[in-house]
Design a protein that fits this description.
Rossmann fold, 5 domains, serine-type endopeptidase activity, alpha/beta, ATP binding, protease, 31 helices, Archaeosine Trna-guanine Transglycosylase, Chain: A, domain 4, about 15% strand, about 900 residues, ATP-dependent peptidase activity
Length: about 900
């Protein structure tokens, strides 16, 4: 039966486009082919020789020649004939039996550069070839065969034969055999990194359990498919590769042969019992071969394993005297278990990793502390300017340690804005004590396993950060800095990292810290823990209770100037290669020069171009100046400062490159001056406006509260600008506003004679609305702003205030952050700072230099605060005298 190539191509296109099914039917009829039917398979099919032999109930992806794909597209079926080399013939075998398959296109059915097509093949029936003819395509493609076939029926098994041949018993034996077959593959293939599939085994076993005479043939077909599985192919390739090596460490002498001929005989065999016997023989042969391979692996593995096991024992013997009892039990159990494992197995690798962690922890490795209380302050002062309280606390700890070596280490928490030296002071403390230093940042951590580790049941499990750090440091008593502890996340799907940290920082628990991976306790009491945070309010109370807080205030102007001169400028000079021993100067490429930044320039950089609690931004600005100097030197190929930039003093010395107020604009543009954005207004404030000084994560800031009102049918207060993102914040600001209103109108009676009605719409807003705000310390400023608005009197120029307002008491209650607030007020140019008298003791922490730059006014009551804020308001004095 011949058809034109054009007709076949049209039919093939219809086959690969399922939406054109109607076109496909029409093209079939035009080509004279049988009608399509789900159960119909044409009597004449293309026949292809293949080394892939499968049985019914199996579906695979297969590649067929492009020349025959046209015919397959028409019939949607084909015959696969077992191909093997017959030693009795010089030609390819002309197989008489094969498998009829249904064919469907794959998602990707082309192979670029190859004349083949991928198809999905589902094996349906055994068949016998009646006759075949060779077809030669008109376009010169390779010839193919079209074969007439008939279905090969199985010989029935009667009940007498079923019992006499003990078929049920033999099926149970076959069940056990393929179970062993599957287990052996599970042992062999992972050794060489090959995957293991169990789907065919499970399907065959399920059928073997429930087979009877009518389903015996189907069961044996499914069982025979196991001999064509990927597991067998992988094992066959592995053994062949190992045997072909010049050095075969496993000593393989057996191989898994190809079963194409044997499987072809199974296809041709009509007797079901004969096929059962053949399958038993084939499975037994494969089982024996794989057993030999596994035995060879075990022998080689045992020799290497014995040496490794002895190595673990030797390490354990050296360290067990310093290990606690629970650690000894776990390690001994693991050493005993690893001694019975195959070194190529995944479990062996996991056990070896566990022993490596457990035996390499610093069980008895300590550094000797420097106890010289005169040398330690010198080292701390060498690295940091100021910070007397943290330094004094460390010195006290060392002194107490020298009297009692068993005293528990303190758990310190450095609280302060960024850039004030919290982290770097921790490094200096470690250097002063002579201890190892390690820092971890826990900001954003939400998974408790980051702290406590993963359990060993998980793939890739490892200890948490605490134990991992102890191994890296290699000492039992390091200085351990936990940075950003206020940004540690709470509960979640992976547990609470905050709760996990409680065990680490609790003096009652850290003597026996249990990591989930190790599953035994490790003593952390010798570690000097130092934590850092920007905001104490963000630390959970339970965690806060376990730490000793040391507050880092903002640096004042002179402190920043000293730090810049002693630390920042030398660091930036070295970073940019401007020191006398740098490569450019040492090699004579440029003449050595000294870069000098004058004190007046430092005053400008600190006072006008940075507004921060620490010195990080100052460090960046100095670095910007140095980069400009380097660029100028490189651009002019000279280290001599241009004459246009030089002063008369500098002109006398060409070896000096000076940055002064006159030429500063050539290094930093005037737009960089940001102090005006943070300073108090130079003009008197409008009525209804009062400044607020607040503590923030960056130190402190100045903003304003503004009040406006209009008549209304009822009393209504609207507050805006306190938080743009979270409505939960701002609650304390709203409470303070209501208290200020009620105090002025009802409790004090200060506004009763002004003709202001209480039923008004009052709008209170806070400037810098993009920044979240909350807290009680704005209460006194709200009182001043409202009184200013209703009396039409401006707040005293240059005054900033802080304190919590009350209602009936009329008192000003204490607030936090006094040191940072005073420093911020000075930076902003304030003249007076009004604060609660209850905070007077905190003034001892404010440097004298800072206190000399501002008038600090202590007040007990809000009436006193109003007197200070409105000294020339006759209405206020009349209202007070009439009370």
């Amino acid at each position: 039966m011949k058809h034109s190539e054009r007709q076949y191509c049209q039919i093939r296109k219809a086959w690969y486009n399922p939406q054109q099914s109607e076109v496909f039917e029409n093209r079939q009829k035009e080509a004279g082919m049988p009608a399509k039917h789900p159960t119909d398979i044409p009597e004449q099919l293309p026949a292809i020789f293949s080394q892939v032999v499968c049985f019914p109930e199996r579906a695979i992806q297969y590649v067929i020649p492009a020349s025959v794909s046209n015919v397959v597209a028409v019939s949607r079926s084909m015959i696969l004939l077992p191909y093997f080399y017959d030693e009795d013939s010089t030609n390819e075998n002309s197989a008489e039996f094969g498998m009829v398959c249904r064919v469907s296109p794959t998602t990707r059915n082309t192979h670029p550069g190859r004349s083949v097509v991928s198809v999905n093949v589902s094996f349906r029936h055994r068949c016998r070839i009646e006759r075949a003819e060779t077809i030669y395509p008109e376009n010169g493609e390779p010839a193919y065969k079209l074969a007439y076939w008939e279905k090969l029926e199985d010989a029935p098994v009667d009940e007498e034969t079923w019992n006499s041949a003990n078929v049920p018993g033999r099926l149970k034996g076959l069940f056990s055999l393929i179970q062993e077959y599957d287990d052996l593959f599970s042992q062999l293939l992972p050794v060489f990194g090959a995957p293991v599939s169990h789907s065919l085994f499970e399907s065959a076993q399920k059928l073997l359990k429930n087979t009877n005479r009518s389903t015996l043939a189907r069961t044996l077909d499914m069982t025979a498919n196991i001999l064509t599985s990927k597991n067998r192919q992988y094992a066959q390739e592995i053994l062949q590769q190992v045997r072909s090596r010049s050095e075969n460490p496993f000593g393989f002498s057996a191989s898994i042969p190809s079963l194409t001929r044997e499987l072809a005989e199974l296809i041709a065999e009509r007797s079901v019992l004969a096929r059962l016997e053949k399958l038993e023989t084939l499975f037994k042969a494969d089982v024996e071969t794989i057993k030999k391979a596994i035995t060879a692996i075990a022998e080689v593995g045992g020799r290497s394993q014995s040496g490794q096991s002895n190595s673990w024992k030797e390490q354990y013997e050296q360290k067990k005297n310093n290990m606690p009892e629970d650690a000894k039990k776990e390690v001994e159990k693991e050493i005993d278990r690893i001694g019975r494992m195959n070194p190529q197995s995944a479990e062996y690798s996991m056990a070896a990793t566990y022993l490596d962690w457990a035996l390499n922890l610093p069980w008895n490795d300590y550094t000797v502390d420097n106890e010289d209380t005169r040398e330690i302050p010198r080292i701390l002062d060498q690295d940091h300017h100021g910070l007397p309280k943290p330094k004094q606390r460390v010195i006290e700890f060392i002194a107490a340690k020298s009297f009692n070596s068993g005293i528990d280490n303190p758990i310190l928490c450095f609280i302060g804005p960024p850039g004030v030296g919290k982290t770097s002071l921790g490094k200096s403390i470690a250097r002063a004590l002579g201890r190892k230093f390690w820092r971890i940042s826990v900001g954003g951590i939400h998974d408790e396993s980051e702290i406590r580790g993963h359990r060993r049941t998980y793939v890739g499990a490892e200890p948490g950060r605490i134990i991992s750090t102890m191994r890296r440091v290699g000492k039992r008593n390091p200085v351990f800095m936990i940075d950003e502890i206020d940004k540690l996340f709470g509960g979640g799907a992976q547990g609470s990292a905050r709760d996990a940290m409680l065990e680490v920082l609790d003096p009652e628990q850290y003597h026996n810290f249990v990591d989930n991976y190790l599953e035994f306790g490790f003593d952390l009491s010798s570690i000097l823990f130092i934590t850092t945070a920007n905001n104490i309010e963000s630390i959970p109370p339970a965690l806060r209770d376990r730490m000793e807080f040391i507050f880092f205030p903002s640096y004042n102007h002179n402190e920043k100037k000293h730090i810049a001169r002693e630390f920042l400028i030398p660091k930036q000079l070295a970073r940019h290669g401007l020191t006398p021993d740098s490569k450019m100067f040492r090699d004579g490429l440029l003449e050595a020069v000294t870069v000098n930044i004058t004190d007046s320039v430092l005053d400008v950089l600190i006072g006008e171009m940075t507004f921060e609690a620490g010195v990080r931004e100052l460090d960046r600005v100095i670095g910007k100046v140095m980069r400009k100097v380097v660029w100028k030197m490189k651009n002019q190929n000279s280290s001599r400062q241009p004459n246009v930039e030089r002063t008369d003093v500098a002109a006398e010395d060409g070896a000096v490159w000076e940055i002064n107020e006159r030429n500063l604009s050539l290094y930093i543009e005037d737009a960089a001056r940001i102090s005006k954005r943070h300073a108090l207004s130079e003009d008197p404030l409008p009525c209804g406006v009062a400044p607020i000084v607040a503590v923030s994560d960056t130190g402190g800031s100045i903003f304003y509260v503004e009040a406006a009102y209009r008549k209304s049918e009822k009393r209504e207060i609207k507050i805006t600008g306190y938080n743009p993102h979270d409505e939960k914040l701002g609650r304390m600001l709203r409470d303070s506003a209501h208290k200020a209103w009620d105090f002025l109108f009802r409790e004090s009676g200060l506004l009763n004679n002004l003709g202001v009605e209480e039923k008004i719409y009052l709008h209170i807003t806070f400037s810098n609305g993009g920044i979240a705000k909350d807290g009680p310390s704005a209460g006194i400023s709200l009182v001043l702003a409202l009184y200013s608005k209703f009396t039409n009197q401006p707040v005293r120029h240059g005054l900033v205030a802080t304190g919590e307002n009350t209602l009936a008491l009329g008192k000003i209650l204490p607030v936090g952050g006094i040191t940072n607030k005073i420093t911020t007020a000075v930076r902003a140019g304030a003249k007076q700072f009004l604060m609660p008298r209850a905070n007077e003791a905190e003034l001892a922490d404010v440097p004298e230099e800072t206190k000399n730059q501002i008038e600090i006014i202590l007040c007990d009551s809000m009436i006193d605060a109003l007197k200070v804020a409105f000294p020339n308001c006759p209405r206020l004095h009349d209202a007070i005298s009439n009370q």
